[in-house]
Amino acid sequence: MAEPGKRAVAQWRRWALANLGPFAALFTTNFGSAWLILAPVVSLVATYAPRRLFRTYFNLFLRRRSRRLLNVVDPYVTIDISEPGGEVRYSRYGPVSDNDSTYEEVKAYLSGAAREQDARELRAEGAREGNGLVVSMRDGQDVADEFRGVPLWWSSVVARDVQGQRKGDRRFQRLTFHLSHRALVVDEYLPHVRRQGREILFSNRRRRLYTNSKSRDSYSYEYKSWSYIDFDHPTTFDTLAMDRAKKRDIIHDLDTFRNSREFYRRAGKPWKRGYLLYGPPGTGKSTMVAAMANYLDYDIYDVELTVVHTNSDLRKLLIDTTSKSIIVIEDIDCTLDVTGDRAGRPRRRANGGGDADDRPRDSVTLSGLLNFIDGLWSACTGERIVVFTTNHVERLDPALIRRGRMDMHIEMSYCRFEAFQTLAKNYLDIDDHDDLFAAVGEVLREENLTPADVAECLMAARRAGSGEPSPCLQILIDELKKRAVEKAKAEAEAKARAEAQAKAWAEAEARAAVEANAAARDRAMATHSNV
Ligand SMILES: Nc1ncnc2c1ncn2[C@@H]1O[C@H](COP(=O)(O)OP(=O)(O)OP(=O)(O)O)[C@@H](O)[C@H]1O
């Protein structure tokens, strides 16, 4: 606050400034009359209007002028993306909020640019997840970039206070560009930088395999939705044994999906795709899911439906998944009553368990699952893949697997020659063999052996043949024949068992019906005799 003496002087000066002009003007001829009118007004305003108002208007006026002048002299704009206040908070599924992650995304984006360019003083830090390194610019370094022909410059800056002292370790990534490109930079370039940065961060992190669990969170006493382990499965499409043309189709489909962001946005469709994998046990359905995840670099969410109690729990699970993920429900026919005759009589479960109607009332229903697949996607952004696997595709409700829900139906079939070639490469490191490959092919044409069967035989043959191709293949042929006989025997026994069980059930049902009839007859007779 100004001292009283100083305040009086300032007031007097203001009054004199406003009034001396008009007094002087009174003595001139040309402007005297104008000043005579203006002087009282100016004097009144100068005396009574608050000083702050004048200062504000004056500053504004000056600033506007000076900005215009500056724009001519220095037409460049800067945008600072500052490091978040504290540590970036990461939840299990990534940065807690988008705001927190912008700096990290920009830094990751610039790590690519810095490596490509001539920034010589770089910094390398271990990625937050995974074994990768994030290379970024040292403070004060610049990197030039270009977007749609527009040049842009990034520099790494450390925050300093007015005395030029470093304010802790707070950093900025400063973007400089010509002000005529402001709209392009804000609307398109920065979102592009964030997207690219996110991709880099994502590819540096370890992938995860999530499963939903029954356990309660010890703090909130609520059911935890997902728990995870690092996903480190070695299977790729190169090691997946299946028909080559089919494999090519699947890879092409995945590529198209991954690159169709704009298409899905334009068409107003959620960016998701469903795959139904069906075939006998051991044909590689789970292996295919791992190959897909490795190919796309996605996380896997393995949904265990038996521990999900209600449709709303299922919904919560879905909302808790992240973008770039594969959501898998294995053996869908065994975990849920999703068979074709929903309205029909009570049926036995596919896995031989109790009746479908035995399920508790609060379990997940087919309509809940259908909502899960397509009704709720609007709540989720980013790409997601849903995979159902089943050994009995014929048992599934057509509504569940219609195109649009399950876009691609992939039959995983028995091991034939092309699949065997892949397995031989995996296990024996050979691509071909004069006669023995043809002999193996012959066995596989005649016998229905799964890739899992063949893989096991290859393991045994490899051990017995000490890894030498010819003896290994000889042993393999014998093993395959032996396995085929054992399998046929086991299948015949299982069939006989199932028939015997079905017969026993039928007899039990018939007996129960006879007993119920007898009881009804006895009741009717008792009523009749009473009457
Ligand atoms: N197509 C395949 N390519 C390579 N390896 C395979 C293939 N199919 C099966 N295998 C081998 O057999 C094992 C079992 O296969 P997998 O669990 O993928 O079969 P599945 O069809 O999912 O069986 P289930 O229906 O019983 O779950 C795998 O760990 C893998 O070693």
Automatic annotation (TrEMBL):
<protein>
    <submittedName>
        <fullName>AAA-ATPase ASD mitochondrial</fullName>
    </submittedName>
</protein>
<dbReference type="InterPro" id="IPR003593">
    <property type="entry name" value="AAA+_ATPase"/>
</dbReference>
<dbReference type="InterPro" id="IPR027417">
    <property type="entry name" value="P-loop_NTPase"/>
</dbReference>
<keyword id="KW-0472">Membrane</keyword>
<dbReference type="Pfam" id="PF25568">
    <property type="entry name" value="AAA_lid_At3g28540"/>
</dbReference>
<dbReference type="InterPro" id="IPR003960">
    <property type="entry name" value="ATPase_AAA_CS"/>
</dbReference>
<keyword id="KW-0460">Magnesium</keyword>
<dbReference type="GO" id="GO:0006950">
    <property type="term" value="P:response to stress"/>
</dbReference>
<dbReference type="InterPro" id="IPR003959">
    <property type="entry name" value="ATPase_AAA_core"/>
</dbReference>
<feature type="domain" description="AAA+ ATPase">
    <location>
        <begin position="271"/>
        <end position="416"/>
    </location>
</feature>
<dbReference type="GO" id="GO:0005524">
    <property type="term" value="F:ATP binding"/>
</dbReference>
<dbReference type="Pfam" id="PF14363">
    <property type="entry name" value="AAA_assoc"/>
</dbReference>
<dbReference type="Pfam" id="PF00004">
    <property type="entry name" value="AAA"/>
</dbReference>
<dbReference type="InterPro" id="IPR025753">
    <property type="entry name" value="AAA_N_dom"/>
</dbReference>
<dbReference type="InterPro" id="IPR058017">
    <property type="entry name" value="At3g28540-like_C"/>
</dbReference>
<dbReference type="InterPro" id="IPR050747">
    <property type="entry name" value="Mitochondrial_chaperone_BCS1"/>
</dbReference>
<keyword id="KW-0547">Nucleotide-binding</keyword>
<keyword id="KW-0812">Transmembrane</keyword>
<feature type="transmembrane region" description="Helical">
    <location>
        <begin position="23"/>
        <end position="49"/>
    </location>
</feature>
<keyword id="KW-0067">ATP-binding</keyword>
<feature type="coiled-coil region">
    <location>
        <begin position="473"/>
        <end position="501"/>
    </location>
</feature>
<keyword id="KW-0175">Coiled coil</keyword>
<dbReference type="GO" id="GO:0016887">
    <property type="term" value="F:ATP hydrolysis activity"/>
</dbReference>
<comment type="similarity">
    <text>Belongs to the AAA ATPase family. BCS1 subfamily.</text>
</comment>
<keyword id="KW-1133">Transmembrane helix</keyword>
